[in-house]
Amino acid sequence: MAVRVFLVDDHALFRAGVRAELDSITDEIEVVGEAGSVGEAVVGIAHHRPDVVLLDVHMPDGGGAEVLRQVRTSLPEVVFLALSVSDAAEDVIAVIRAGARGYVTKTISSQELVKAVVRVAEGDAVFSPRLAGFVLDAFADRPGAAPISDPELDLLTPRERDVLRLLARGYAYKEIASELFISVKTVETHVSSVLRKTQLSNRYELSRWASDRRLV
């Protein structure tokens, strides 16, 4: 029997590409549905009851962790594999903490993606090589380990974290806007929100705060 897969990503072109690629190279996987938002994903997953959900981490209305929070309790048999452009430690940790069985980046080859989907469907945990270390750190009881939970960091939305990460890397507002495909005004709004939530006063303090949490 083919592994029944549901795609969740806010970019329709990317979903179409993944579906076409999987359909063309394997009969081990059947894509049964797709969604571009948290709300659509929750409804679609409940309707289709797939074996595996390929889950984007960042979406405008909450992201992959929010999908997991809304679905995991009612559909514990569904397995989630994060498929994201992000390789940031906090993103990996957040989605695994929420219940995903693995995390691979969008640089993965089509053949490797097929293997990853089949493996998580069979009960394995799958991670892109450099991401496995983040998970080990997060759940290791040793000095320097990334925290499993950071209440202050959890206050920030995924988009605020994106903006903060680029800000801490030295990007100007205009560069951040270009990188994230948002307006400079929206960048300013996100930075103001982050400053308010962290109770910090300037970008230099934010950069140090982000570095301490391994966002950079």
TrEMBL record:
Domain HTH luxR-type positions: 149-214
Protein's name according to its UniProt entry: Response regulator
UniProt keyword terms in alphabetical order: DNA-binding, Phosphoprotein
Region forming the signal peptide: none
Response regulatory domain sequence ranges: 4-121
Keyword Phosphoprotein among UniProt keywords: yes
Any Pfam family matching the protein: GerE
